[in-house]
C-alpha cells in the first residue's frame, strides 16, 4: 500500500517514490501539500516577492527546439531585434521603478559581434543604474569564455533550463544533432556554476512522452546539481512547431497547470531556500496562475517590460498573456496581483537566491 501524503510531508528526506506520490496527489492530498509548501516558503523566504523586469530583446535564434514557436525553422515568425537604446530605455524603466533586477532573454546566438554587443549592453546597464540593477541573462548555450565575459561585464545570474533531466526525453524534443545535445546543456550549467553565476534551470511540465518519474528525477536533478534558482512552467503546444503533432496525447491544459503547481510545491519543500519563479506560461492557462504559484512556493515574478510593439512576435506558445500591455500597465497589474497573493514586493532589492549565499 502506498504511503499517506501526510506521512510523507512529515519527512526530511524524500525518495523518488515519495516525490512521485506527491506529484500525483489530488483534492485534499493536494491541499495538504500546498499548505506545507506555503508554510515552508514563509519560514524560509518570507512574504517578499522580487521583480525581474523581463526584456525579450530578440526572437532571432539559431536553434530548432521542436517545442518552441520562435525556433529557427519557423518561417512564419516576424523576426525582430530590439535596438540597444530601446533595451537601455527598458533597463532605465526597471531601475526608476525600483524593480531591483532585470532579465535579458532572447533567442540563442553566439557570433562574436553578438557576444560583444551583449557585453557592452551589460556594462551600459550597470552604468546607467549606478550598479543598482541586478542582471539575469538567459541567452542559451554559450562557450565558457562568453559566459565569463558576460559575468565580468556585470551579469550575475543565468537561467538555462535543462528542459528535461532525462537525455532520452531531451532527444525526443530536440533535433538529433550536435547543436542540440543534452551533454552540452549540462556542461553549460556546470560552467555557469564554476564561473560564479547564481545558476538557474528548469523544465517544461506536461511534455509529450514525459512521465511522473521523469518529473521526480527533474526535482532530484535540481537538488543534486545544487541549483540556486528555478523557472519551470507548463508546456503549451504551438501549431507551428513539430511537437504539435503529439497534441492529442497531451494531458489537458488544466491538468498541466495543476501539475506545475505541485512541482513548485514539492521543489519548495525539498529546496527550501532557492528562488523559484512564477512562470508567465501559468498565466496563459489560468488568469490567476502566477499568483497561485506565489502562494504555494514561488517568490520571483517577471513583469514584461519589452517594448509593446514587439511582444506579439515573441510567441513561444499560443495565447501568451500581456502581449498588448505597456510596461506601466504591467507593473500596476502585478502589484495588485501580488497583494492578492498575500505577498509583499521587495522593491529596490536584488532579491538574490538565499541558497546561493548559503552555499558560498
Ligand atoms: N533561447 C533561450 C533558451 O532556450 O534558453 C532563452 C529563451 S527560451 C524561449 C526560454 C524558455 O522558453 C525555454 O527554456 C523553454 O523552456 C520555454 N519554452 C519554449 N517553448 C515553449 C512552449 N511551447 N511551452 C512552454 N515553454 C516553452
Ligand atoms: Fe531558440 Fe530558446 Fe526557442 Fe530553443 S527554446 S528555439 S534556443 S528561443
From TrEMBL:
InterPro entries: Aldolase_TIM, Elp3/MiaA/NifB-like_rSAM, FeFe-hyd_HydE_rSAM, HydE/PylB-like, rSAM, rSAM_sf. It comes from the Bacteria. The keyword S-adenosyl-L-methionine applies. Its cofactor is [4Fe-4S] cluster. Keywords: Iron, Iron-sulfur, Metal-binding, S-adenosyl-L-methionine. Residues 47-273 form the Radical SAM core domain. Gene3D superfamilies: Aldolase class I. This is [FeFe] hydrogenase H-cluster radical SAM maturase HydE.
